[in-house]
Specification:
single chain, about 170 residues, alpha/beta, Protein-Tyrosine Phosphatase, Chain A, four-stranded parallel beta sheet, 4 strands, about 50% helix, about 10% strand, binds zinc ion
């Protein structure tokens, strides 16, 4: 197997995601432990409520379980963008990805996250969107951006649409 694709597969596997809405802390921790998560990447636009998931409390909660906590608030999906997109999730995704690519602060945090993820750890992107559907939530759109950024670094095309983030990548890897 080409080393590039091996690197890409390894990179892709570093990122998992889960959501918080309606999930109590004990179940959240259980999910993280099942996924062997080493670090939680918080990409919520609003992160104050519920109080037990306030960044400070989240950090304490995770620390007890030996999980690192990193907050990237600028990688949240701003309310204004979500309002503009309404129920058009394709448009919502485009707005979000353009926002990350073009606005200085989100772009800076994106690059920080990319740099951070060179370590051999499992990272879990978390947000408050009540869904695990890749078409509907910015955690997956962010993961797609990360993968495409990695692809460009490896000399591959950087505009792959990753709807189902594992299934689409595997055939390319094999
Ligand atoms: Zn989301």
């Amino acid at each position: 197997m080409d080393k590039k694709y091996k690197d890409l597969a390894k990179f892709t596997q570093k990122f998992t995601t889960t959501h918080l809405k309606g999930v109590k802390p004990d179940r959240f921790i259980e999910t993280l432990e099942n996924l062997n998560v080493n670090a939680v990447i918080d990409v919520r636009f609003w992160n104050i409520f519920p109080l037990y998931y306030h960044p400070k409390n989240m950090k304490d909660l995770l620390e007890i379980h030996g999980i690192e906590y990193v907050l990237f608030q600028k990688l949240g999906n701003p309310t204004e963008l979500r309002r503009r997109a309404g129920n058009n999730f394709l448009f919502a995704k485009r707005l979000y990805q353009e926002f990350i690519r073009n606005k200085p602060e989100p772009k800076k945090q994106f690059l920080e996250l990319f740099k951070l993820s060179r370590l051999n750890k499992t990272y879990c992107l978390i947000c408050y969107c009540p869904t695990n559907d890749p078409k509907l939530c910015h955690r997956f759109w962010l993961k797609e951006l990360l993968i495409n950024y990695k692809r460009v670094q490896l000399g591959l095309s950087g505009d792959i649409e990753v709807q189902n983030l594992t299934q689409k990548l595997i055939p390319e890897v094999i």
